[in-house]
Specification:
2 domains; mainly alpha; AhpD-like; homohexamer
Chain lengths: 136, 136, 136, 136, 136, 136
């Protein structure tokens, strides 16, 4: 199932259970997915990672669905099968349609292509783009 | 400047000029950035790439600024310096503030971390996430 | 099983058998894993790769277990399923506990996150860090 | 200097200063490197990232120098120039010699090669390596 | 089968069918592989991608088999299982033997290794190699 | 210049000089590029890497120029600036024209795009492509 033994709720110590409870209550679900069960081998890693994800994915300036789509984009470039599937599922729950997923992929694919071209030709950065155009 | 000679407007053949003109008119700017000048060595590559970028980045279901942020996310994972800077500049022109960029990076960073963890522990995909949760 | 036909010991020519024998005697095992059987299609590639791995992973200044953990770290970032699993198995044989694997992953995950942040914000290298701080 | 304006100590708000002070006191240095100054645009991101790095890189089961070398390995595969240089500098301060760096790179290079070979031939995972050999 | 519903020929609209027909006639086959069926969710994405692939992989200055091998090389570094397998199959149909595949992988593996070493040591570019040696 | 001190010919020990001499005589040049000077910190790493590169890049079934182009393709996906420039220079010396480089990049870019799409939609491998179509 993973390179470490997954920690099921029943076998979890209080520190781990507390995180599991917070995951379920925050997400309003009644189960824990394998990712967290693997991290639970080191409760501190579980806790810190969950706190990070919770804070980052909470409503902010960016729309939660937009954040999920950015998460998918990163996962695609990294080729992380678990992450692509789990965040696509999360995005669908937040309203992502097939058309939106398709448009997301069109952008990701195009970016991956032009990244290769810019890198392949070793194109020098235009002055206007230095520091992300901050001073232009 | 690049591993090929950049094609300046003055030296460009009609096919290349036509693309350059379309880039400037579509973006309402009066200059061509180095990326396109490098592609122009093969006019067909220039034309096809520009048509793709134009179609993909045009207003669709997703907001143009959201698309630029997805473009940045992909470029960050690929470590493409040219692309990160040019699309950050493009996103700023479309209204991205420091706070939005910062929130974008928080998501990208967190995704990159959990991608490594899911991959590192070789976590098995939960049934509920199969096919991106399409059948759940 | 692979995109080339795996070369089993029985079907191997003398040059391949010699490498297989050395792998088994060096590792004190009595079987050959699929990776080497795929390389054996080109005996020279098999021999050169094995010699490289044997030399690099032999006891040196760095502890053999530390080397296995570095091997895992690289494999995680590359998302190589075969390599993550085989080197995690090798590290366990050399004494890696769940706690050590977990701490390893915590470092890999954090590095992957800050790599994205440094790249995403295009942070300029501090003078003190130039050439890896060699002259500071 | 970066795609966001770096936050210098003098211009920092109390929340950011507190993190800066902790970085300097933990590391026993009297300056802040650019990475943190870029994150400071979003104090929450700065604080969370620093807390994560501090916890992960603190003495644990793995040796602090080993952790720095793992950090370098990840940064190399990601091609993160800032991170390679800054963590090589950090590792040198913790005692890494040229010979150790060289041996680290030999492992990283070899891993990157065999990752490509295992992936390129799509080698099937041996039963003994499943779940990282956890059940063998 | 994928994170979107695959579009089978029977269920496809005329725009999609036209692309499917062109794929089959160009490749002289009588079936459509899953990749295109996934893209068909957004007919425009399907059409644009197919036109791009058709143009790029058509006979040009480079030999079609060489192009397939380059495609495999990219797919290996990206760790794209679908792409490695499908383009290895395509290359075999164009005449790639086991020996050629093996030699291709030897180059890809060696490049992946020296990429890591050049990046890991942060080797400065020699003057003679600037702009890909264009001016030397 | 690098994170280790480059070893110049004059300061090199006999083992390193022997490799340097072989590099210059094999390539029929009269200087050593920085990459090898960085590896020379560990003569064994230098020797093993050079022997590998020499063997792999020697004339074989694949054309030497084709091998250089594959080397470039890998380097582009890895974003290795040193490697892209040095191997583009090497390929030019072996006869690569601007048109060939451009066609190479068109393939690399297209592959990078479709890799992202296949991964992003998590397209299931068609039966005909299993094991790279070896059994079809």
């Amino acid at each position: 199932m993973a390179t470490v033994k997954l920690v099921e709720y029943e076998a979890a110590n209080p520190a781990v259970r507390k995180v599991y409870d917070d995951i379920m209550s925050t997400r309003q679900i009644d189960w824990i997915n394998n990712f967290w069960k693997a991290l639970a081998v080191q409760p501190e890693l579980l806790g810190r990672t969950w706190e990070g994800v919770k804070a980052v994915m909470a409503p902010g300036i960016l729309d939660p669905l937009v954040k999920e789509m950015i998460y998918i984009a990163v996962s695609v470039v990294n080729g992380c099968r678990y992450c692509i599937n789990s965040h696509t599922a999360a995005a669908r729950k937040k309203g992502m349609t097939d058309e939106m997923l398709s448009e997301l992929m069109a952008v990701v694919g195009m970016a991956n292509q032009t990244n290769a071209l810019a890198s392949g030709f070793q194109v020098e950065l235009d002055e206007a783009f230095e520091d992300g155009g901050r001073n232009s």
